[in-house]
Amino acid sequence: MTSVAIKTSQWKFSPIPNIEESNFNKILERFYGLGVQGLTKENIQNSLDGRLINSTAPVIVKIKMGTMNRKDIPGVSDVIDRIKCLEGRNSYTKETIDHMLKRVDQEEVRYISFEDMNTRGLTGAKNGQSHSKKDTWGIYAYNKGVHFEESDETIETTRGGSHGVGKIASNAASDLHLMYFANCDENGDQHLGGTVQLIEHSYHSQCFRSTGYFADVKEEHATSKFYPYENEFHPVFEKKTRGLKIIIPYLRSEFDSEDEIIKTVCDSFFISILDGRLEVQVNDHILNADTIENYLHSSQYYHQEISEMKKVFTPLYVKTYKSEQPRDIVVSNGEKDFNFKLYFKYNEAIVKGRVAIVRTIGMKIEDFAVKSNATKPYNAVLIGGLDEDSYLKSLENESHTKISAADIKDPKLKRQATRFINNLSNAIAKIIDEEMKRNNPTDGEMDTKDLLYIIETQFKQDLSHAFGAVKMNKGKNVVKTTDVTTKKKTKNSGEQEGAVKPRKTGIKRTRRNNPTGTADELQESGTEIFSVSPNLVERLIVKNHEFIQFNFKDIQEMKRKTSCHLSFNLVDGMGEEYKDEFKLKENYEDAIDQHTGSSCVIENESIRNVSIKKGMVKLKLDLKPNYNRALKFVYYVEV
Questions:
Q1: Spatial distance between the Cα atoms of 217 and 219, rounded to a whole number of angstroms
Q2: At residue 39, what are phi and psi to the nearest 5 degrees?
Q3: Of 29, 128, 136, 305, which residue is least crowded by CB atoms under 10 Å?
Q4: Domain carrying residue 391
Q5: Are residues 425 and 475 in the same domain?
Q6: One domain, residues 122 and 56
Q7: In whole angstroms, what is the distance from residue 329 CA to residue 352 CA?
Q8: Domain count, the chain
Q9: Model pLDDT for residues 362-372, shown as the tens digit of each residue
């Protein structure tokens, strides 16, 4: 292939003197990690940003997944030729290139497209690689790390985009890092562009940059300038109504999930959908203000039991937003006060409390965990005005999934951001405490000396399966261990290979925490930590007191022990433990040893020096008003 042939290729790469960067764009990996959720959220947010000014019609986004023939993808053979010339210089690039090469020979190619309507589309396509701020085609098509800024400050404030890196989310969803965008502007002009993200490479004895553009090139005033192609390509790439259409061929299998897209639409944009500002069509599914709750109430997409909503809270948010009157809260960053509306709901059945922080565009940023209140029974939705929206926008990360001070470089702004986030937690925590006190009034003391302990039988049956849990892979997964024999049995033994022996003890040694003391001291003292079987524990909550009894009478390891330290881990119905989410001093006023009548010291998240008499431990815990009575625990004893 000659240099003339390179210039006539439909894909253009800028020549460079030599290769200096041998890695793929870091943002590709970041958005690949966010999966189909990041892809869907980014493209719908872009469509909302491009809504028609002064129009009351909802933005409509049509998401389609399907299969097309490779030969119908514009210029794909040119991209494949480039990929075959790539040279990996480290393990990551070699692995990525090998993955690409395994996909290039597919005849039938999966794709996804995002087409919006009631939007402005891109302007100035005919001007090509223009530097005018009015020509949004040039900014979108040929610039990285830049986003178009509205001349109207109010409109710019409400836009979701700000970092200018979200465009690459579509490249990350393609096995070949390949994406196209079809545009129809206000004049009905239709054009097609595209980008591919490779690495710097040598192609026919010439070095090129990593990014390729699906564009024509013209020589003007001794310089080369990119221009888009008139859109006369396969129907998958058509865009005949005003707006923008993203097309991503070679769709990664991990992104090819209709259910996940539907859930992402609901989770991230439920406010804009409920308010009638957005409608999303996913293949044959239509999500709008009239239909969204059908999906929220479907077990195909969401847990329907409130107690099972531990990671995804959208059904709760929607109910709260629709049924609760908003409360006004003021949050300061130390220099300025920001005024928010908080839709708040207290419900004892809720296992984890979260706040949906929502931008005025109707997009949720994150499920905000209020400091020291992550397991309180509530949920809430937080929305501000334009000033609040502008400030939240300055705190967002690139993927619009979290507010944080971590990436702010200016020390003063960083301090203000940290103060704002802390004050936000404090303001909501105050409301949580007030609601818990109101829903759990104290109406006098009760004589409990003759009460029998009540065993929570069903819970203990469920939790027993999690006894002796071992954390793996950075603690994210829980592997439940049992005493399983692997040795073959004799024919007369009556036992089969792999049979489960009955558990001989109710405690199991663990390395849950490092006990108090130096290594030499611990070795000398013989300090050990055991996890305690639920069958040894009995609990009773009466008014503002919790009574806990441990029965170690038949436990050999506890013989001749006269005292111990106790600690708790939160546990859910699946046996998953949460080590850091429950703070003893924030939930208990006092811990009283019922054998001695004395208060025990609460220190380092354990109750210290609790007496053991005749193999029994008996504790009375005075509850603080904000204590969540629905919590379940795994107990640990240190002796």
A1: 7
A2: -60, -50
A3: 305
A4: 306-439
A5: no
A6: yes
A7: 22
A8: 3
A9: 999 999 999 98
